[in-house]
């Protein structure tokens, strides 16, 4: 590029100063050969895989110009093409690597405590299980769990959340985050390329390669457009007998700006989203997210915090004590013991709640075997006892009798809007538990915001009973509730919404909502930092546990779609404008190439604007104190 540019300029100088024509043309010929060889080689490589490239158009035009003695045109066209390609590649690389800056956030040195002495190691030298020391103001070099100490940790590198989260013993922390205060000892869980930060960046790079539907369409278009242009140029020559005109047509019709129009926006949009803690899995999902008209929410863990508490414990008459327990244990405690035994192998949030309802030092027996019924409950075997816990509807078919007293107790708990789980031992109902879960503090405002940005329909899908679902729906302002759904019924509900309203997103925890998440046009998982499965299975993964990020993701997706449309418009208008100019005999080859290359750069720069996009995000966050409380 530099040699061709220098030779071309030399030719211009020679021409201007009235040098011999031989010298002037010789310099331009030399420039055209230097810049053109590279273009011709690329055109040839593409032809070998039977693809008509833009380079082919330029090569034909440049060679043709040399044949008719237009050395200046040939030199200018080839040089401008190479220069434009270079600038485009540079800006594209800059856009792609913007995220890599995040990696630079991980420190280059980590302090590790081994056998009571402090060692300074490179992050990848840390071994899983090492104790890593983090001083106030220090950055974490590994993913891990806090062993001692507590600190306010700025996780913005991962979640995009500017407000630090208060973390204490047992909480997970991530490489690239900063401890604002406090001395921490952290047990290393993932190091080097296995950290959440490193994996996010890797995932984003893959996502940026995944083609959007618009991009595929444009590539198909270009594959017949290029040969069509050659035929058109030949036709133009046949009619006008004007070689220069035919060659100019080849140059100005280059689809360069069109081909880059979509990928540049997708790369920038996905990169921008990732910096806000929103992982979008590819151009396809970005486009789909921009078209969302309805959103379905799972209840537990999505609209609520997913940390239910046991509020009501209602043992029924005649509840036995666990075989190993002394007889004086109160019936309430007996019920909790049976429930904890049944839940001992379960991952369900209600199971965790039962565990928390018992004293921290309680160690009960664990089930020998258990079987979960998704959306129903869990059935466990311990020695000769069979214990079952689950929704009353599910358990009703598995117990011998459901007494009037039990029915009255059930209605009572449901009236308060609590989620009920019933417990049976060896086929007899022994008691009922009532649970309540706190709403996410940002839920109501986040849903309101989604309505404001034009999402037509917000729906709650839950396995829970109608009464408790309705209570939560009222409080956060969702008017459509589908309750008592089994996982496959959630899937059918999504299909119905898609038929009635159009493109639908589903927000869920991915535990028992996997089929519905997969069926929705976009599956969104929240609060996934550190959970591999959720990151992998969702179309959009939100690092932070924040419903407000959904509107932000949709806003960014729409901004990207708009940006793509602008780019396609710029590309097409340029080609048509140039075509009119050529037909009016105003535009010639070098000038045409110049304007064409400018249009490519305009498209690239327009795409890059997305990197700085600030989606109109309302801070509907709860006051800081409440948020800190939530994070602990
Ligand atoms: N392990 C369990 N322990 C106790 N109850 C359970 C268990 N699994 C399911 N249930 C009962 O089945 C109902 C539906 O369970 P499911 O897991 O489908 O819903 P969820 O995920 O808790 O709620 P949502 O669908 O709103 O997220 C629960 O409300 C509860 O009554
Ligand atoms: Zn759920």
From TrEMBL:
SUPFAM superfamilies from the UniProt entry: Calcium ATPase, transduction domain A, Calcium ATPase, transmembrane domain M, HAD-like, Metal cation-transporting ATPase, ATP-binding domain N
CDD domains, per the entry: P-type_ATPase_HM (cd02079)
Segments passing through the bilayer: 28-45, 52-69, 75-93, 221-239, 245-271, 568-584, 590-608
Record-annotated P-type ATPase A domain positions: 105-205
GO biological process: copper ion export
Pfam families membership: E1-E2_ATPase, Hydrolase
GO molecular-function terms, A-Z: ATP binding; ATP hydrolysis activity; metal ion binding; P-type zinc transporter activity
UniProt xrefs under InterPro entries: ATPase_P-typ_cyto_dom_N, ATPase_P-typ_P_site, ATPase_P-typ_TM_dom_sf, ATPase_P-typ_transduc_dom_A_sf, ATPase_P-type_domA, Cation_Transport_ATPase_IB, HAD-like_sf, HAD_sf
Cellular compartment(s): Cell membrane
Gene Ontology terms: cellular component: plasma membrane
Keywords: ATP-binding, Cell membrane, Ion transport, Membrane, Metal-binding, Nucleotide-binding, Translocase, Transmembrane, Transmembrane helix, Transport
Documented EC number(s): 7.2.2.12
Membrane topology of this protein: Multi-pass membrane protein
Reactions catalysed, as given in the entry: Zn(2+)(in) + ATP + H2O = Zn(2+)(out) + ADP + phosphate + H(+)
PANTHER family, per database record: CADMIUM/ZINC-TRANSPORTING ATPASE HMA2-RELATED, CADMIUM_ZINC-TRANSPORTING ATPASE HMA4-RELATED
Protein family (similarity comment): Belongs to the cation transport ATPase (P-type) (TC 3.A.3) family. Type IB subfamily.
NCBIfam families xrefs: ATPase-IB_hvy, ATPase_P-type
Protein name: P-type Zn(2+) transporter
Species name: Thauera terpenica 58Eu
């Amino acid at each position: 590029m530099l040699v061709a540019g220098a030779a071309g300029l030399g030719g211009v100088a020679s021409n201007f100063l009235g040098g011999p024509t031989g010298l002037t043309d010789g310099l331009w010929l030399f420039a055209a050969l230097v810049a053109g060889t590279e273009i011709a080689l690329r055109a040839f490589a593409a032809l070998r895989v039977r693809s008509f490239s833009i380079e082919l158009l330029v090569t034909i035009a440049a060679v043709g110009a040399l044949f008719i003695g237009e050395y200046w045109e040939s030199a200018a066209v080839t040089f401008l093409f190479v220069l434009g390609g270079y600038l485009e590649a540079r800006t594209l690389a800059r856009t792609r690597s913007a995220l890599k800056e995040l990696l630079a956030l991980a420190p280059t040195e980590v302090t590790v405590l081994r056998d009571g002495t402090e060692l300074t190691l490179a992050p990848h030298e840390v071994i899983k299980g090492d104790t890593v020391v983090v001083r106030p103001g220090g950055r974490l070099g590994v993913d891990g769990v806090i062993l001692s100490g507590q600190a306010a940790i700025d996780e913005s590198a991962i979640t995009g959340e500017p407000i630090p989260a208060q973390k204490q013993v047992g909480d997970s922390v991530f490489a690239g985050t900063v401890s604002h205060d406090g001395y921490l000892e952290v047990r290393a869980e993932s190091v080097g390329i296995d950290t959440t930060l490193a994996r996010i960046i890797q995932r984003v790079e893959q996502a940026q390669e995944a083609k959007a539907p618009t991009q595929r369409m444009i590539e198909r278009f270009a594959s017949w457009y290029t040969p069509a242009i050659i035929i058109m140029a030949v036709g133009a020559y046949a009619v006008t007998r004007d070689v220069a005109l035919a060659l100019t047509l080849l140059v100005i019709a280059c689809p360069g700006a069109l081909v880059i129009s979509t990928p540049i926006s997708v790369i920038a949009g996905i990169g921008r989203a990732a910096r806000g803690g929103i992982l979008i899995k590819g151009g396809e999902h970005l486009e789909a997210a921009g078209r969302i008209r309805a959103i379905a929410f799972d209840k537990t863990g999505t609209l609520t915090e997913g940390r239910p508490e046991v509020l009501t414990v209602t043992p029924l008459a005649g509840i036995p004590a666990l075989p190993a327990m002394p007889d004086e244990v109160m019936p309430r405690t007996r019920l909790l013991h049976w429930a904890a035994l049944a839940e001992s192998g379960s991952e369900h949030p209600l199971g965790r709640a039962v565990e928390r309802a018992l004293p921290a030092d309680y160690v009960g027996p664990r089930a020998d075997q258990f079987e979960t019924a998704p959306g129903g409950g869990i059935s466990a075997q311990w020695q000769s006892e069979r214990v079952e816990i689950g929704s009353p509807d599910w358990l009703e078919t598995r117990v011998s009798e459901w007494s009037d007293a039990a029915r009255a107790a059930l209605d009572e708990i449901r009236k308060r809007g609590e989620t009920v789980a019933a417990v049976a031992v060896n086929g007899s109902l022994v008691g009922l538990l009532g649970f309540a879960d706190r709403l996410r503090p940002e839920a109501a405002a986040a849903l309101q915001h989604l309505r404001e940005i034009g999402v037509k329909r917000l729906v709650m899908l839950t396995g829970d009973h109608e009464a408790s679902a309705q209570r939560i729906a009222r409080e956060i302002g969702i008017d459509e509730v589908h309750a008592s759904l089994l996982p496959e019924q959630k899937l059918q509900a999504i299909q119905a919404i898609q038929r009635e309203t159009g493109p639908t997103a589903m927000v869920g925890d991915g535990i028992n909502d996997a089929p519905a998440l997969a069926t929705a046009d976009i599956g969104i998982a929240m609060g996934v930092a550190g959970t591999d499965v959720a990151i992998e299975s969702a179309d959009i993964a939100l690092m932070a546990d924040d419903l407000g990020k959904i509107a932000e993701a949709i806003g960014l997706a729409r901004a990207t779609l708009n940006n793509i449309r602008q780019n396609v418009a710029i590309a097409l208008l340029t080609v048509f404008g140039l075509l009119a100019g050529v037909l009016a005999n105003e535009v010639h080859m070098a000038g045409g190439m110049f304007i064409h290359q400018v249009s490519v750069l305009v498209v690239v720069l327009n795409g890059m604007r997305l990197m700085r996009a600030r989606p109109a995000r309302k801070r509907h966050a709860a006051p800081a104190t409440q948020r800190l409380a939530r994070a602990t």
